[in-house]
Design a protein that fits this description.
With 281 residues, this protein is of the alpha+beta class. It folds into 3 domains: 87 residues, 3-Layer(aba) Sandwich (Rossmann fold); 65 residues, 2-Layer Sandwich (Dna Ligase, domain 1); 93 residues, ATP-grasp fold, B domain (D-amino Acid Aminotransferase, Chain A, domain 1), CATH 3.30.470. It has 9 helices and 13 strands. The protein has a 5-stranded antiparallel β-sheet. Strands 2-1-3-4 form a 4-stranded parallel β-sheet, sandwiched between helices. Strand 1, helix 1 and strand 2 form a beta-alpha-beta unit. Helix 1 crosses helix 9, helix 2 packs antiparallel against helix 3 and helix 5 runs antiparallel to helix 6.
Length: 281
Amino acid sequence: MALIGMVYVIARWEEKALVNAASKRGVGIKPIHTQNLHVFYGEKNGMPPVVIQRSISHYYALTTSLVLESLGVRVVNSAKATAAANDKVWSISVMVRKGIPVPQTAVAWSMEAALRAAHELKYPIVVKPTNGSWGRMVALADDEEDLRAILEHREYMPQPEMKVHLIQEYVRKPGRDIRVTVVGDRAVAAIYRYSSHWITNTARGGKAVAAPIEGDIGELAVKAAKAHGLEVAGVDLFEHPERGLIVNEVNPVPEFKNTVKVTGVDVAGEIIEYLITIAKR
């Protein structure tokens, strides 16, 4: 029986790298494709003792983790940690309670309340959905007219979560942010993501450059991951012009292709080594 399982929706570069890293270490890894999976509660049916969650769909990741955990499978990351990281209200709330610095943020449950919050924060402001990644559905409002247009669009969407508005300060970054990859209790690699666009994300065309993991960068990233209960995470940091390093977001299913490309760090190997350690406990 395979020692490790990997739940996934699409086999991207990262998932293939994890399979290769396991193979190099002589460890069996069982790919578990969600669309081909059905599970009866109470029946483990040869499921590996440890599973890495790599589903890009938040709901697939959450539900498969919950079901596998009910069978006694050790899932990395856990369902609770995944849910906390993927829900921005939950995530920010967790970090604020732990004293982790985040952008100044207000949550509003109506258009009128969101407009008042933006007025207090001062324009420009950023409007975010309560869940999502790759910068999707994130908008910049330069003034009240912009914000009204954004909120009116959101208010007409049928999903109830689109009527919960995250209103956040616009952080004037130095043309970059920092993505730190955390495995276990260590920051294993970091990159600066440069872009002329205000969303500095390599999925949106940002350029990756190696960054240091020593000192405050690594320490803050590990602290943020642990606050959520995450064992493998991508932590996005901003360099705030007045407050220094702050945490923007935490990703429970991080991409790391560009990190490997510019740092040379074997991130997949680090993850597999961590999973092997758990499986052999």
